[in-house]
Amino acid sequence: QVQLVESGGGLVQPGGSLRLSCYASGFTFGFYAMRWFRQAPRKERELVAVITSAGSRTDYADSVKGRFTISRDNAKNTVYLQMNDLKPEDTAVYYCTTDEVLWQLNGGVEYWGQGTQVTVSS
Fold first, then answer.
1. Using one digit for the tens of pLDDT, what is the confidence trace for 21-39?
2. Could you tell me whether strands 92-98 and 116-120 are parallel, antiparallel, or unpaired per DSSP bridges?
């Protein structure tokens, strides 16, 4: 079964950096795009970054462009999110998930990990 395990979060000061990792299993990782979402208290979950299956194309939310970089290592079944110049408004629980196509192939089941907490505060 699909499993996603996020790690790398923590407490950092404004302007600092973190690198998040998401290890995936239970499916053919290299066939699917991967996505990072985040959810702050009292807010809807928002899409942060997307990377295609081979890593050739990426896209980002306007709020993180120029600061965050998504990447992947298909040999390790892992997707990363490098976060630089962090701001207090980046504080949230960060989640990774697959291309929505995989959800559809499994009867509409959504696959999420447990998330990793990122707190940006002085």
1. 999 999 999 999 999 999 9
2. antiparallel
